[in-house]
Amino acid sequence: MNSGLFIHAKLIKQLHESPGNDLQKHSNLWLQKLAAARKSWEKLSAEQQLMAAKAINTHCEYWKVKEVELEFIPHASTWLKGERYEDEIVIEPKKEKIDKKWMFSNNGIETKARELGVFGTGYDSYDSLKQKCMRKLNIAVV
User: What is this structure's pTM?
Assistant: First the structure.
């Protein structure tokens, strides 16, 4: 993943951790981005600054989990001006892949049914047994 992904987070953290104009230690590009972000930062109230500093880690984690391209991540000043730190971010864990090979053979369906403790009536077709297994696994039955 592009290491530039967290430049925005670094900017927000830098603004929160180093008050004043301690910009000399940064490159010109960093200075320009930091200066633009600092202007936005200074317009925020102390409460908003604290909210932004707390929220940036969650946003970075979200961008990382969702594999958001850097071009779609707002610049730090845009993020601050848009009050994006107030966004409610929900990071859902990745769903584990379910092996569905069993669904395509009668033998596989019988094996999966035994494994899940799903027992047919004796009159079940393989299709209805497969559907019972799918319901047990919370897989959408079509």
Answer: 0.51
